[in-house]
UniProtKB/TrEMBL annotation:
Domain of life where this protein originates: Eukaryota
Lineage: Eukaryota, Viridiplantae, Streptophyta, Embryophyta, Tracheophyta
Protein name: At1g61320/AtMIF1 LRR domain-containing protein
Alphabetized SUPFAM superfamilies for the sequence: L domain-like
Limits of the At1g61320/AtMIF1 LRR domain: 14-342
Coiled-coil residue windows: none
Pfam families: LRR_At1g61320_AtMIF1
Length: 382
């Protein structure tokens, strides 16, 4: 196993033999921290001098070490000229504290920040990357609570891809009129994307239990123009007193929902509200996990015809009251339906014999409860 001292000696030896070389990509991937700052700074200076267009510092240790001192990225080594060649920057396990006089990366197009600590405003760094096209922020931690707001007031006109995952931001705000893809994983938070009219694809992964009502009110508010949407959440209960979606996905055509639900069958059946919330929806895919076998009376949901839905897939069908009620609603109201695909089974990791048994039961329930409803021959049971 390569020790830290041996790694440092090896890097120094390699760079010594290439001191006049111009490189395209410079990467360091080894578990280092603030105690090795002098060595890392020297290597970063080499990357600057060699006009590297891509710089990667992945200093993650071989095992978890949350209590260690992260390396402070040396913003002081970059000025308007020295940072002008940099087009892609990937930083893992560092501390970011850009000084107030930091002039930015004038030509940086791609920024990937993973498992890092913020000691100064992160938005100050991002506002100085005016040609940024691709941005991922994942596992961000704050030295002070006041740093937990990510509000970038400077417009990022070229930003097309934005991903924020596993961070505890109190609020997120970007002015990115050309943003096309947005991905978010975390808890409920305030998100303002300021009318990104070109935003067509979005992925939302929510940590906590939520009712479907939250999805039907919060997501259309921040993503009204989205065309393709993927949502993962756990539905903890039915929507109490909910009669119709107050907001609509006015452009949504492709929707995938990965759902884990508790025992109330209405929490599944009320997925039918999605058809009203997305009047232009064309294909709908459900991945259903861990549904309880509790049964009960289903709520009454007003029948409303849907004129665009063509393809529906229910993966993880087990014949519960909520699932059957949802399929019945789709049969009755999706007037343009061409395919309703049902994949029986229990979508949790189980022994093979148990999994096969659940799949067999789900298929029996589909044949018994759904086939009689298939008057237009659109049902496929896999």
């Amino acid at each position: 196993m390569l020790t830290t001292n041996k790694f440092i000696e090896r890097v120094d030896a390699i760079l010594k033999n290439h001191c006049t070389t111009q490189v395209n990509k410079f990467a360091i991937e080894f578990g280092l921290s603030t105690e090795h700052a002098s060595h890392i700074n020297r290597w970063v200076s080499f990357a600057i001098a060699s006009k590297a267009r891509v710089v990667v510092l992945n200093l993650s240790p071989n095992k978890s070490a949350l209590d260690r001192d992260n390396y402070d990225f040396p913003f002081q080594l970059f000025d308007g000229h020295s940072g002008s060649h940099l087009q892609a920057l990937q930083l893992h396990w560092v501390t970011l504290g850009p000084p107030p006089d930091f002039c930015g990366f004038a030509n940086l197009k791609m920024l990937d920040l993973v498992f890092f600590i913020v000691s100064q405003d992160l938005q100050h760094l991002l506002s100085k990357c005016c040609v940024l096209e691709w941005l991922r922020i994942r596992l961000c931690f704050f030295q002070l609570p006041s740093l937990s707001s990510l509000c970038v007031q400077e417009p990022l006109y070229r930003l097309q891809y934005l991903c924020v995952e596993d961070c505890a931001f109190r609020e997120i705000e970007f002015h990115a009129p050309n943003l096309m893809t947005f991905e978010y994983k975390g808890s409920r938070t305030l998100i303002n994307l300021n009318e990104c009219l070109k935003l067509k694809t979005a992925t939302i992964r929510l940590y906590l239990n939520d009712t479907l009502e939250y999805v039907l009110t919060w997501i259309p508010c921040i993503l009204p123009q989205v065309d393709t949407l993927s949502v993962k959440l756990r539905i903890s209960s039915k929507m109490s007193g909910f009669t119709q979606p107050p907001l609509k996905f006015i452009q949504l055509r492709h929707l995938t929902m990965e759902i884990t639900s508790c025992c109330d069958p209405n929490s599944v059946f009320q997925l039918a509200f999605l058809l009203e919330a997305a009047p232009l929806l064309e294909d709908l895919h459900f991945d259903m996990f861990g549904f309880d076998l509790c049964h009960g009376d289903l709520d009454d949901i007003m029948d409303l015809p849907h004129y665009h839905l063509k393809i529906v897939c229910i993966d993880g069908f087990y014949g519960t009251a909520g699932q059957v009620g949802l399929a019945k609603y789709i049969f009755k109201n999706a007037l343009a339906l061409e395919h309703l695909i049902v994949k029986p089974g229990w979508k949790l990791k189980l022994p093979t014999s148990t999994s096969t048994g659940y799949e067999r039961y789900g298929r029996q329930e589909a044949n018994k409860k759904l086939v009689p409803l298939d008057t237009n021959s659109v049902l496929t049971i896999l």
